[in-house]
Amino acid sequence: MKLNEKGLTLFEIIAVIIIIGVIATIAAPTISKYIGGTKLTTFIAYEDSMEDAAKNAVLDCVGNNSSKCELPDKGETNQIELSYLIKEGFIDEIKPPKGGTCDLNKSFVRVENRGNLNYKFKVCLYCDEYTSDDEIC
Fold first, then answer.
1. pTM metric for this prediction
2. Cα separation of 64 and 122, whole Å?
3. What is the pLDDT of residues 5-63, one digit of tens each?
4. How far apart are the first and last CA of the chain?
5. Which pLDDT belongs to residue 35?
6. Spans of all domains in the chain
7. Per-residue pLDDT tens for 108-133?
8. How far apart, in whole angstroms, are the C-alpha atoms of residue 46 and residue 86?
9. CA geometry: angle 109, 47, 29, nearest 5 deg
10. In whole angstroms, how large is the CA radius of gyration of the chain?
11. Could you tell me if 134 and 79 are in contact, meaning their C-beta atoms sit under 8 angstroms apart?
């Protein structure tokens, strides 16, 4: 009498589970590193957006001679808070990847006037899981 062997044995199922476990163990650190790198990239992109927003705010001040703008004199620095950039529409609200928050009043862009409409910008972003690594922060 011939047996019909269409199913898997317990040994074959256990072997497949072990192989899947080994692959998951090898892949987990790589996936974790990739996700962590993506978060960092997101915050760096936010810093770049803040710098661009501050540049636009300074250009707006210079172009309109607005009285509400406080640009630094030559050789001096001033800070533009993230809350101001959002309120005035220069940047959208920043939303961290994991749903935390960023401190809108503590986060800022430092503007240094080097003379002849030459400005240098440095960003300090303060969020629950990220803080800019610039020395001024």
1. 0.69
2. 23
3. 677 788 888 999 999 989 888 887 777 766 666 778 888 999 999 999 999 988 888 77
4. 81
5. 64
6. 11-131
7. 999 998 888 788 999 999 998 888 98
8. 13
9. 145
10. 26
11. no
Which pLDDT belongs to residue 37?
64
Its sign, for the CA torsion 29, 34, 39, 40, is positive
Give every CB contact of residue 33 below 8 A, 6+ residues apart in sequence: none
The tokens of 62 are what?
Answer: 């210079």
Cβ atoms within 10 Å of 98's Cβ, excluding its own: 11
Cβ within 8 Å of residue 43, ≥6 positions away: 96, 125, 127, 130
User: Using CA atoms, how far apart are residues 86 and 93, in angstroms rounded to an integer?
Assistant: 6
